Structures are given as structure tokens and as C-alpha cells.
Amino acid sequence: MIRDEPLVLGIETSCDETGVGIVRGHTLLADAIASSVDQHARFGGVVPEVASRAHLEAMTPTVERALADAGVSFTDVDAFAVTAGPGLPGALMVGVAAAKAYALSLGKPLYGVNHLAAHVCVDQLEHGPLPKPCVAMLVSGGHSSLLLVPDVASDVRSLGSTVDDAAGEAFDKVARVLDLGFPGGPVIDRMAREGDPAAIAFPRGKYNDGTYDFSFSGLKTAVARWVEAKERAGEPVPVADVAASFQEAVVDVLTQKALKVCKDNGVHDLLIGGGVAANSRLRALAAERCEAAGVRLRVPRPKLCTDNGAMVAALGSELVASGLAPSDLELPADSSLPIESITL
Prior knowledge:
The chain is α/β, with parallel strands linked by helices. Helix content is 44%, strand content 19%.
């Protein structure tokens, strides 16, 4: 580790995770997270007001825990980075306000960064600098995006996105149909290992439509109707087979589209990020298809796929290293920040 590289503290509050990460260059020193997922579970999904209150309560102790884990103090921090969007408006405002307060009180630069670009950049903490260019597929509860990334600090281009439910959202809704609880991604992943992915021929939306876009709403509805038909007939629902067949439909579409983007754009490096990138079947099928296509695959370890402060600090570190100007201390929280706006 090079000690004269800037020390960056990143804050993430776009949804239900209060994340604080500390990075020096491409070295991760601390990744502290306080999750409010248990508070949302009884509602079957994230409640924005509950998330905002949880961020308020968790911010100071999570920052202090990250500093202790890294063995540094506030005076050692060279710059702050914070997720400015996209995300839940109230949740974003908590993180942005906290980052402004820290930066102003310490006289340090502040970088308001894009949540999606941060998901791309976090892989550098594990696998080193990103190839230029690379293709990134980000899949989470709120996003299913295909991006061309010539330079994560200055040039990220959207090529495709979801037209309705994101992949992670579909996992949550199908888990609710199967009475598996919230969040749906991890439990469906576990349940699917006991089922047959070829048991039920669920639809693959927009599979061969010639675009890079996704659609998972029809798949979710097809699962719900299939389960309802079984229940009306008084037959047992084979939950593991439903979970495995649904999951296979999702990852089949995701990997097919991602490899199409790589082929069409002559890019030989694919990065997968976001919470759904922790799914074991997605990782396995992507590895299999990338190897067959001669594409190098990069996927961060599961903990770095879900929302965290490390990814925000990683992008902040990249921006500092690239010599880009910091944000104005009046920067807003932008819930619909487009991916092309890497910083605010």
C-alpha cells in the first residue's frame, strides 16, 4: 500500500443500508454497514420513511466504527465521497447532509457520486484497475442496467435498462408469492439449489428483441399465475422447482443480453455488480458463458456487490486520482440521477 495515496471516506445511504467505507488508493481499509432490512421485513419491502430514520440513527456510530476499523482519525481523511443519487430521496438526503457536515467542519473536499458508477468502481478494490473499455451489468432491487464504461471516472454510457421491474424487485415479488419472506434474493438462491431449473418453462421477456433492455414484470406475473393455478387445483406448490425455474429465467436473460453487448461492441471484459450479482447461479452461468465467448469476467465478492460505503469511497478515490474537481458544498441529492452524471 502506498501511504501517500489519498485517504477517502465514502458514505452510502441510497436505500436501506447505511454504509461507510474507507479506501486508500485501491486498498480497502474499512467497510462498516448498518442495515435496516429487519425493520422493513414485516412490510414485505423497503419503507422510505423507515429507511431515512434508520440512516439518521446509524450514521454517527457507523462512521466511528469505520474509522476505528481502519485505524485512522478524522484528521487523516483527505476527502469525502457520498452517494448523491439515484436512490430514495429522503435516504439520500441523510447521507448528503452528513457528508457536507464532515467535509465543511474539517475543510476537506467532497465528491457527490453516482450510486451506479460506484457499483462499477468497487471491483477495483478486489481485482485492480478496470480495463478500458469494459461492459458493466448492474443488477439490483432498483436497477437492471447494461453500461459501456470507457472510463469509470469520466465516461459511463447507458446501453440498456429495465422497462419495468428490475431483476432484484422481481426476486422480492416472487419470494412474496412463495411466502419466503423479504428480501427475496438470498432465500430464492438457497431454495433454488434444491429444485430443478428446467421443471417449469417460464417466459424470457425481451430475450431476442434486438435491444439491450430488460423486462421482468411478465415473468413475475407468470410465476404468480402458475402458483395460483396450482393452489386452485388443490395441488401442492413445488416451491424449490418454482424458485429454480424462475431464477434460471432471470439469469438466462441477464447473461444473454450482457454477452450480446460485449459482442456487438467488441469488448472483451464484462463486470457484473449490484446486489443480484451475489446470486450463485448468475455467477456460475456468467462464468460459463463468458468462457465460451472468450470474455473475461469480473465479479466482486458478494459483500461488495450489495450496497456499501466501500464502493462510494472507491469511486471517490478514483475521482481524486484523476484530478477531477470536487463537488460544490451546495450539491443536492438527486433521486433520479442519470448514469452519465458520474458526479454532481
